[in-house]
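User: I'm curious what two different proteins look like when written out as structure tokens. Can you demonstrate?

Assistant: Sure. I'll show them one after the other, since each token string lines up with its own sequence. Here's the first protein:
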Amino acid sequence: MAAADQEPHASVVLHPRSYQDESYQHGFLGTVDVLQKAGVLQDVVLEVEGRRFPCHRLVLSAASPYFRAMFTSDMAESRQKTVVLQGLDAGMFGEILSYIYSGTLHVSLDKVQPLYQAADLLQLDYVRDTCSSYMAMNVERSTCVELYKFADLFSLDIVQNRCLQWIARHFTEVASSEEFCSLSVNQLTEIISRDELDVKEETTVWEAVVKWVQHCREDRLHHLPIIFPHIRFNLLTPYNMVAILDHALVRKDPGRSVIRNVVKETSNVNMTRRVGMDTLEMALLFTERTREMLWMNPGEGKYIKCRYDISPLTGTVTSDNNIYFLAEDSHKKYGLFKYNHVGNKWERKSSVRRIDPSKDYPPNDYLMEINGHLFYLVVPSRSEVVLRKYNQHTNKWHTCSTPLHNGQLDPNVAVCCNRHIFLFTGTEIHCYEPQRGPLVQENPVRLQF
């Protein structure tokens, strides 16, 4: 057959592709870090509080819009060999440089606030977001007021909301602290105006306000007309109302008539009851056969019943009265579920990968709350313990450091108490403190039977 008569070969279409060398990316950053530590090719010195930090303009510009604007514009700093930076802490700037050159950020409670401030000035989004998330995860009794004040100053909504939730749930305890008196008047009114305050009586709110005013009486007395509309006087008894109007704080105030009018006007407004005024202590029961959930108040002989469509694996009731369960849904997938009290239904929060137990070992799964955080403890075998922590802000689970043990676990039950996890076996008690970071086992207590 002649060449002209042959069928032409099918054309091959070549599609371009892009390849990413991850080892190069990591290696490049590692090399830059080595050059920085060796003091090679540095072309600018940054001076902070008298400390000198030799650096590379290119690296700084790539990491921070702040430095990019400084070194690529007509600003005088773009031509200077030494640039003095104002408004920064030298120690925190050292931490920032360590992150810029290594990609690793070290955060702790004692430096998270100045670290955030430095990152905010230098426009480092990752550092800001990480610090914000870290603060939100570490809201507790000793930190809630200070973190709330900081979050309010920098408009950190995640941290601020978390602090307000914690303060409302533990209002009586927080109001008795010295830190409470350091709040501004706007911060105070923001707190006492919340429906979520867990107080049995409105007199608790009044007493907190009195303590706050008397802490700096001369400077704060004039704020009473601003504060009083947020106290729900309509929830007080007539006896308590008379006592408040006759209180020295009101009686000796030059603007007493104004305050009395505010009290009387507010007492006639039908303001909502606080959440703690109607809270009941209830026992929570599940029936596996009928898939019903019961809230029972044995003292009053009351109960509430509802059905559920999940297969609970383990669950807990948190300090803010939320019910969480690790359960299998109708699609045979495990997840974290939160009970919606208003809608009377379960809401899936996140997926959970269950650690399958060994074939010859019964499953041991425990869900518990410690200081506002959920922990999932799994003992899949007699020689293994797995602990995970739930971050409600990112909606993700993080594996904690593996607890140390003697390799022969036969747990009967696990409970939490005083920020510790206690794992009971047939002969020992194992104690862990997850808030410390890496988990360490206390000396096990051997029980005698």
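Here's a second, unrelated protein for contrast:
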Amino acid sequence: MGPNQASANKGSEKEKRTMTMEIKHEIIEKHESDVRVTELARQYERSTSTICTILKQKNAIKSTKPSKRVTILSKLCSDIQDGMDRRLLIWIKEKQLAGDSMTETIICEKASRMYDDLEGKQAAERRETSTPAETFKASRGWLDKFKKRTGMHSVVRHGEATSLDSKAAADFITAFASVIAQHGYIL
């Protein structure tokens, strides 16, 4: 293939465009008010298969409540992963409040164990043992996406942050307030 053919093919490739959750909700609402799929595809400049995929996932899209800053979800999570995400978030907050040390490795291991537990419970409820289980790997990429989905910035505590002396911090606040009051400083 010559250089001219390569550049011609490059221009014809479709670029991947993402859709915000608001647009997906609009598409679902318009379809429910009897707007045809072809008209929605034309209006939103998408293929009819894209619109049909959104409409097939409408129950999951309607029930999804992403973090305030998250507007785009590229993949909808399974019920198991959604439950694991919620439980993991609670576990992380409890660990942070307790002042415990956490690393990305610890968080990923906990996520894997939670996922396996939830998957086992769901299989037991359905009495299914022969169906192949979904594969879940709590990797660095998964953790980055988890933090983005949940709106968390820093979940890892190490170094001086883990050796926090809360009693000394409370004593300092009291001593500092008395110095301010004694000398008449304005905050």
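A detail about the second structure: Confidence is low (pLDDT under 50) at residues 5-12.
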